[in-house]
Amino acid sequence: MTEIQIRKGEPVDRALKRLKTRLEMDGILEEVRRLRAHETPKERTKRKARAAAKRGKIRYRFTMPKAPGAAEAPAVTAAV
Protein backbone atom coordinates (compact mmCIF):
# COMPACT_ATOMS: atom_id res chain seq x y z
CA MET A 1 0.00 0.00 0.00
CA THR A 2 1.37 3.38 -1.00
CA GLU A 3 1.51 5.98 1.71
CA ILE A 4 3.35 9.18 2.49
CA GLN A 5 4.17 10.88 5.76
CA ILE A 6 2.97 14.46 6.11
CA ARG A 7 5.78 16.59 7.43
CA LYS A 8 5.26 19.06 10.22
CA GLY A 9 4.05 22.37 8.80
CA GLU A 10 3.73 20.97 5.26
CA PRO A 11 0.80 22.31 3.23
CA VAL A 12 -1.82 19.71 2.33
CA ASP A 13 -1.63 20.49 -1.38
CA ARG A 14 2.11 19.72 -1.42
CA ALA A 15 1.50 16.40 0.37
CA LEU A 16 -1.21 15.53 -2.17
CA LYS A 17 1.20 16.31 -5.00
CA ARG A 18 3.79 13.97 -3.46
CA LEU A 19 1.14 11.25 -3.11
CA LYS A 20 0.01 11.68 -6.72
CA THR A 21 3.61 11.52 -7.93
CA ARG A 22 4.22 8.33 -5.94
CA LEU A 23 1.02 6.73 -7.29
CA GLU A 24 1.99 7.66 -10.84
CA MET A 25 5.46 6.16 -10.43
CA ASP A 26 4.00 2.94 -9.01
CA GLY A 27 1.60 2.68 -11.97
CA ILE A 28 -1.50 2.65 -9.78
CA LEU A 29 -3.20 5.63 -11.48
CA GLU A 30 -2.68 4.09 -14.92
CA GLU A 31 -4.24 0.84 -13.77
CA VAL A 32 -7.24 2.63 -12.23
CA ARG A 33 -7.83 4.57 -15.45
CA ARG A 34 -7.53 1.37 -17.46
CA LEU A 35 -9.99 -0.54 -15.27
CA ARG A 36 -12.51 2.32 -15.18
CA ALA A 37 -14.03 1.32 -18.53
CA HIS A 38 -14.42 -1.94 -20.42
CA GLU A 39 -11.52 -2.75 -22.69
CA THR A 40 -12.16 -4.79 -25.81
CA PRO A 41 -9.67 -7.48 -26.84
CA LYS A 42 -8.60 -5.31 -29.79
CA GLU A 43 -7.88 -2.35 -27.47
CA ARG A 44 -5.95 -4.65 -25.12
CA THR A 45 -3.84 -5.89 -28.04
CA LYS A 46 -3.12 -2.32 -29.15
CA ARG A 47 -2.20 -1.26 -25.60
CA LYS A 48 0.17 -4.19 -25.19
CA ALA A 49 1.73 -3.54 -28.61
CA ARG A 50 2.33 0.12 -27.68
CA ALA A 51 3.90 -0.90 -24.38
CA ALA A 52 6.14 -3.43 -26.13
CA ALA A 53 7.21 -0.82 -28.68
CA LYS A 54 8.06 1.61 -25.89
CA ARG A 55 10.12 -1.05 -24.11
CA GLY A 56 11.84 -1.87 -27.39
CA LYS A 57 12.77 1.77 -28.00
CA ILE A 58 14.27 2.05 -24.53
CA ARG A 59 16.12 -1.24 -24.94
CA TYR A 60 17.43 -0.17 -28.36
CA ARG A 61 18.51 3.19 -27.00
CA PHE A 62 20.79 1.62 -24.41
CA THR A 63 22.14 -1.11 -26.69
CA MET A 64 22.52 0.92 -29.88
CA PRO A 65 24.74 -0.71 -32.48
CA LYS A 66 27.65 1.29 -33.81
CA ALA A 67 26.93 3.38 -36.86
CA PRO A 68 28.22 1.85 -40.11
CA GLY A 69 31.45 3.45 -41.26
CA ALA A 70 32.17 4.96 -37.86
CA ALA A 71 35.84 4.74 -37.06
CA GLU A 72 36.67 3.14 -33.79
CA ALA A 73 39.07 4.91 -31.46
CA PRO A 74 42.57 3.57 -31.95
CA ALA A 75 43.91 1.42 -29.17
CA VAL A 76 46.47 3.17 -27.02
CA THR A 77 49.68 1.21 -26.72
CA ALA A 78 52.78 2.09 -24.82
CA ALA A 79 56.12 1.52 -26.50
CA VAL A 80 58.83 0.37 -24.11
Written overview of the protein:
By secondary structure, the protein is mainly alpha-helical. It has a domain at 12-61. It is built from 3 helices and no strands. The protein has helices spanning 12-26, 28-36, 41-62. The protein is flat and about 65 Å long.
Topology summary:
Elements (H helix, E strand, L loop, with lengths): L11 H15 L1 H9 L4 H22 L18
Count of helices?
A: 3
Percent strand equals: under 5%
- SS class: mainly alpha
Give the helix level as a range of percent: 55-70%
Mean pLDDT: 84
Number of strands: 0
Bulk shape? flat
Which radius of gyration do the C-alpha atoms yield?
A: 23 Å
Organism: Prosthecobacter vanneervenii
Protein name: Small ribosomal subunit protein bS21
Keywords: Ribonucleoprotein, Ribosomal protein
Family: Belongs to the bacterial ribosomal protein bS21 family.
Summarize the model shown:
The chain is mainly α and 80 residues long. The protein has a domain at 12-61.
Keywords:
80 residues; mainly alpha; 3 helices; 57% helix; flat
